[in-house]
Amino acid sequence: MSEINKIFILGGAGFFGYHTIKEAIKRDYAVKTVDIVALSDDLKFNDEGKVEFIVQNFFALADKEIVDLIRGCDGFVYAGGVDDRIVPKKPARKFFYDTNVLATARIARLAKEAGVRNFVLFGSYTSEFAEENDYLRENNYQQEAYVETRLLQEKAAMYAGEGSMNVSVLRLPYIFGTMQGKVPTTSMYVDMLRGQEFMPVTTGGFATITANQVGESAISALENGEHRKTYAPATGYISYEDFYKKILKELGQTETTKLQVMTFDELEEAYKEDEKLTDTQGIEHGIRQVNMLRANSMELKLPTDDAYERLRVNKEDTEKIIDETIKASNTRN
């Protein structure tokens, strides 16, 4: 176990960063955090002596300014970056490379220069399946722009740490939880189903974790202090069909919306057409539509060993938290 005194958390006003700060305080660590926006008064931490919150465009600072901000912290949690919900202009590979890989490599290098000994990167569980799932690999899932750059992001951070800074990665699955003043990402599913009479649903499902457990995982990974270690923490699983049913229940549409479970083969042509459409619009998904469908048609479960044994997260009522998240996502109720 590594000895840590003070933790720098990038993105403290964000969903992940906020829950990581909460866990750091619970374990009696001092925290310095920076974000481009401030926390609302309702969310500010009472123990000002434990949390130093700086409102600043961190990435716009010069290298020396960043090093000076980080200096004095021996732990660092990188809770920034963009995920595959963003659909950029073509080529998607350049967008995700610039925003995730280059930015992470720079900050990891400067964190090491500032004296950080343990660095945790929030990554994506797409990296886990890109390495471990033979069927997805046979279909070049690992070469999709978002997935490939997520893997490269991990390596960039690890190489930056060589010599004196341990770098580990949390390959996070779908995260459920709430934060006052923020609409959960689940809202895009709620809005998609709202008012619909018919909705196709894929045959697969996805691994889950709660926001509190993400915070616990991050601080435990710092404490573990293992270089080049990747964790895929998950504490649950839900099928898309059951997830959609929960949303329909929240919307009061269980009797008016027909869900039709459809296989990959049944949906493939529609997704190919959507790929052509986005191509003509000059935009590109980080994971192309057919491979996204392929993944969404699989039961993408993860073992719970990383979460419960290696990262020592506490058990929570996941079903209840999923329901609470969906309720918070229904902004028109």
Automatic annotation (TrEMBL):
GO cellular component, one term: cytoplasm
UniProt xrefs under Gene3D superfamilies: NAD(P)-binding Rossmann-like Domain
Organism: Anaerococcus octavius
SUPFAM superfamilies, sorted: NAD(P)-binding Rossmann-fold domains
PANTHER family registered for this protein in UniProt: NAD(P)-BINDING DOMAIN-CONTAINING PROTEIN-RELATED (PTHR48079:SF6), PROTEIN YEEZ (PTHR48079)
Name of the featured protein: NADH-flavin reductase
NAD-dependent epimerase/dehydratase domain boundaries: 7-182
Record-level Gene Ontology MF annotations: aldehyde dehydrogenase (NAD+) activity
Pfam family, one: Epimerase
Lineage, top ranks: Bacteria, Bacillati, Bacillota, Tissierellia, Tissierellales
